[in-house]
Every structure is written in C-alpha cells, then in structure tokens.
Amino acid sequence: MIENAFDKPSRFESRKKFGSINLNLFESGGVSGEMQAIDFFCGCGGSSAGLRKAGIEVLAGIDNDPDAGCTFRMNFPEAKFFQEDIRNLHTFCLEPLIKRERNRPLLFSACAPCQPFTKQKTTRRSDDNRMVLLDEFHRFVRVFRPDYIFLENVPGFKNDAADRGPLARFLKFLDELGYKFDMQSPESRAYGVPQVRKRLVLVASLLGKISVPPATHGPGTGNPNFASVWDTIGNLPEIRAGEEHDAVKNHRAASLSGKNLERIAATPEGGGRLDWPEELRLACHREHSGHTDVYGRLRKDRPAAALSTRCISFSNGRYGHPTQDRAISVREAARLQSFDDSFEFAGSLNSMARQIGNAVPVRLAEVFASHFNSHYKGSPYYGGSN
Asked: 42, 44, 111, 114: which is the annotated catalytic residue?
C-alpha cells in the first residue's frame, strides 16, 4: 500500500504491487489530459451527466434496463452502452475502450441497485440476487485498477449485514488493493440538489488520501439556503393531469381519476390526506396515522421529498404539484433530480419515472466529479511530474 498521501512508487514497485497491467499514471509519469470514466449500473445516466458537466469523458455505461439504455444512448451518443447484466459481462469487453488512451486518469462510477437496501422495502429476501451485484464490480476494479472510484447508494446499504455484507466485502477489497477511501451519508440537498435525499457516498483513490467533498449548500457554506422546489420547477408552463406540453420535452403528467382530482383540489400546498373532508378519505386511512406523505403536495419554499421510482404518482408519496391539481410531471421530477431540460427520457410514463427515481442526482455527481478532478490536479501525477 502507498502509506503517505502522495508518495509516488517507482515503476517496478507499481508493477509488483498492482500486477502487469499498464497502470496509466504509475506507468506514464502522469498527464494533464481530462479524466475518463466508466459508469457501472448507469441507469438512464444521472452519474454520467454529472461527470460530463465536470469535464470528464464518459467512455461507456453499463446497465441491463432496455428503456434506460435507450435514454442513455440518446443523451450520450459518443459513449458505448452495454445492455447487459454485469454478471454476464466479461472484463475484456472494456479493454478496447480503456486501452485507447490509458495514459489518462480513469474513474469508475457505480450505483448498484438499491431496492434490496432501501427503507421503503418492507421485506428482504436473502435470495434477492441484486444484493451481490457490487461483488461483480470487484472483477473490473481488480483488472483495470481505476485511479478513482465513486460509489453511491442508499444509507441502508451500509447497515445490511454491516460486518459481512456487500459493502463490507468491497471495503476490504479496496484496502487489499491499496486504495485510500472515505465514506459518508450526506443529504443530497447539501450539494445543491433540491431534494431531501440522504445518500451513502464513497470516494476511493489510488493516488493518495481522499475525502468526501464538503457541502456546497446550507448553513456555513457560500450558499446558505438549500435549493427549493419553486426555484427548480416554478417557471415551467402549466399543464393539466394527463396532459403533455408540446414544447417542453417530457413535461407530461399522469392522469388522475375524478375522485383523486377532488382529493388534490382539497389538498393545500404542503398538505396531505389529513386535510381532506371525511367523504374523500380512503377507508384504509381512517384508522391509520402513518404514511402521511402519500397524496401529499410539495411545498414551494422547501426541497422536495426524496423521489422514488413512482415519483409522478399522486398516491405514492408527496408528489403533488404545489399549486396545480396534478402530480409533478416527468420533466419536473427530472429537474428535481437536477437533470438539464435538454436531457430526454425514453419509455412509458412509468418507465421514465422509474429511471428518474433510480438516478444519481446529476448535481451530486457533478460536485464529486469536480472533486476528483481537483484531487488529481493536486497530486504529483498531474502534468507528468516525476
């Protein structure tokens, strides 16, 4: 292991420690070219969009969701997309991409499916095969030894069999390979995302000690106020439930039944089902005080509730528009995940919602990508120094 933050091993030591693969910065002496990235479990491309905004070249995305693949291809035509279960993907499939210009710093980003670990999951099956997908990521890290690794997931990922679960195995693996790493569970709103969305984030480096970047928004920062719902979606044109705007991509809202139109009309901004008159209440809620966010409206002056894969459904969370009698549209949900309006989604209405809810918030990924860039430029590997 490299004991000191930026101690630079000799070329012989690099080969001895890390194998015979031509490790880019250790072998070349370092360059000043832009960083390149592979996005594992990329979904529609939230991480990739953030990486690209920070000036990192996205070489490829990997995911087995066909609709997410269509979205990724539309928005990253310059990148390769592997529509494949990672368990069936051989490491040699990436070799032509990574060896193309292997003298540039390399980042691996990975957000393995979070559903087995989310607090919204009420049951957990030990045979859920998604729980071990991070273990498959080991193979690619072992072969290619990326200079940096970015991992994002739900906080429950850390708690699942903490001493023997997939995260514990990954941390042990990183330590064995000589990576320095840091892991925290910050709120996404602390990085400018207009959402109360706590995430587990991990940063790892072969180029010396690294830490999770500091907050960019909130008390004690240069941006003391968190981004709000209205800051984010307030300028989009009005539409009705079931309508799609003809000039704004994906500005489409789900239909509502007559009864649910009555319910949302009776819901004040920031309110929910407890504000309804008795005749509008569901029988299952009359003696149930929990789940008060369902059938709720967002507040204009606060960050949104965490978006789920059903983020455009009035009945599945606090996803009612603050002022209009409908749930938020696909485009509004995308903005709350900090996607640019130029980012277009493919698939059915439910599929687009699922892609957005599963995505890494773009702004969060951008902040972390910029942090990796700054870390590299502060290392002795930048610019070919010896």
From this structure: 114
